[in-house]
Predict the 3D structure of the following.
Amino acid sequence: MTENTQRLQKLITLSKERGLKLTPQRMVIFTILSEANQHITVDEVYQRAKQEYPMLSLATVYRNMEQMVESDLLKHLDLGGTSMRYDTNLGKHHHFVCTKCGKVSDVYIDDIQYKVDTKRSHLDKAKINSLDLHLQGTCSDCS
Amino acid sequence: MTENTQRLQKLITLSKERGLKLTPQRMVIFTILSEANQHITVDEVYQRAKQEYPMLSLATVYRNMEQMVESDLLKHLDLGGTSMRYDTNLGKHHHFVCTKCGKVSDVYIDDIQYKVDTKRSHLDKAKINSLDLHLQGTCSDCS
DNA sequence: ATTACTGCAAATCTTTTGCAATAAG
DNA sequence: CTTATTGCAAAAGATTTGCAGTAAT
């Protein structure tokens, strides 16, 4: 069983657990997501899915992706482009964006240490729950 | 001279340096930006500016803000909302977003130490130029 | 005088939504 | 059978653009 097939199986199992019905449209979307790169847009999914299932509607893809986010099958990934990206990698990780070609790489970081300048920051008693690192630079291919 | 007046003076000086013409519209926008909180949208600027200069066009605000970004008088601030925010704080800093009320605070951090898991990440010879920390949690008011 | 800037309206782009028909469980 | 899901077309919201007139330098 390939890695992609495993991912697909996992999506099917989880969506059943969440009570989602397994329509052919959803099945096509799941398949694409389990094969795709990790930082995909709705329209990219739609373009590929149409080839398998030509009468598919764009609205259906939008609705499905948002449902998946609500059901924790997918995460929003806001990289500052013109349209929303979705991250199929649910594990804890960060992102590196190449400012030349725009490519996005996942970055795994063991531990981060930092010291807030409390005089200039005004966090007071704020409770920090999560921490995302956004790295920018030039990727190997572009340098 | 107040802090806001200083900010305004700085914008005027810098824009002259960049060769921008000082129209009344631009002047109003500059004034609002030098008085405003740091994470403002085009529409927020527009709404306030209209009161001073009612025949101002929204397109003019859009064009001016983008020009300011190009001329390094302003920075894009992508916090994942529905519309672009602009940051008037040009110094190096990071952001904390309260997940309950949405408030954004600037966070100053002296030094950040982290260790990339090179086995799982694939940065290869990528050159990292900048590093943004995006903190999320609950602010003092909400907890 | 020259060139940037402006207002307006139309266009574009992404995302959402109402609704009636259909299909999954 | 019941309820979620779908396609379609329209709506909504943010941003951009063409153009002809206006104003800053």
User: Anything to note?
Assistant: Residues 94-137 of chain B form one domain.
